[in-house]
Design a protein that fits this description.
alpha+beta; Arc Repressor Mutant, subunit A; 3 domains; nine-stranded mixed beta sheet; three-stranded antiparallel beta sheet; 5 helices
Length: 250
């Protein structure tokens, strides 16, 4: 009887150990997945394929992506143990990977300008973390270059038109001045302004009136009137306490 009791105890201990070892795995959720993950240039993610995980498959969502400056971050992490999983991740065209971390084993391939990440694993959680950048296509860059070129050419044309306008304006003004019989050669800008004012008004003006009309300092008016007088273009006539300035007839 003692030997039988020993056998019973041994069998009981073995069964208990088996329960301890296998019961957690029997009670835990065991998932599987065979999926494709596609990320477009706007950060929208579509996951398709076969899986028994309740919220792994999804279409056109931004929940897994975020962007900081020019860097995109894709983070797909699912709790629970996957007895086996296999996935294919396609990033947007012209992408470059800066950082990659994934559960299981991974490899990176290129397919028609797209970076493709492939991974698989067993008896572990599912996790994919990728930091990447998307480069602009050459066509978009060419469009941007053409747009900038158009803007620059337009600015050059506008500046050229403005320059031509002022050249023509000055030429017409010079011809008008010559037609009045006066040569402005050797005159500074303020002397020209005083001459134009006297010609336009066609009447003698005091120095105070000239100063107010042209809004220039009194000393500058006196100095430039003296210069015009020396050149023989104007003449003064003292009336009381004031000097009347008039154009000297050619």
């Amino acid at each position: 009887m003692g030997l039988k009791n020993i056998y019973k105890k041994i069998i009981f201990i073995v069964i208990l150990l088996l329960l301890i070892i296998y019961l957690p795995s029997l009670s835990a959720d065991n998932y599987y997945a065979d999926i494709t993950i596609e990320v477009d240039s706007s950060g929208f993610v579509t996951i398709e394929g076969t899986t028994n995980h309740p919220d792994l498959l999804i279409k056109n969502t931004e929940v897994y992506t975020s962007k900081k400056q020019s860097y995109w971050l894709l983070n797909i992490t699912k709790e629970g143990i996957f007895s086996d999983f296999i996935y294919t991740l396609s990033l947007p065209k012209e992408s470059s990977i800066n950082y990659l971390k994934s559960s299981g084993f991974i490899s990176i391939e290129e397919n028609k300008g797209n970076l493709v990440v492939k991974g698989f694993g067993e008896n572990e959680s599912f996790s994919v973390l990728v930091q990447y950048q998307t480069e602009k296509s050459s066509e978009i860059q060419l469009i941007e270059i053409d747009f900038i070129s158009i803007i620059l050419i337009t600015l050059v044309i506008i500046l050229f038109i403005i320059l031509v306008y002022y050249v023509i304006k000055e030429k017409i003004r010079g011809e008008q001045q010559k037609s009045n019989g006066y040569s402005y050669k050797g005159l500074n800008q303020r002397q020209k302004e005083i001459m134009n004012l006297l010609i336009d008004k066609d009447t003698p003006l005091t120095q105070t009136e000239i100063q107010k009309q042209l809004n220039i300092p009194k000393a500058a008016v006196s100095r430039n009137i003296r210069g015009l007088e020396l050149k023989g273009l104007i003449e003064k006539e003292q009336i009381g306490m004031s000097n009347l300035i008039r154009i000297k007839k050619p």
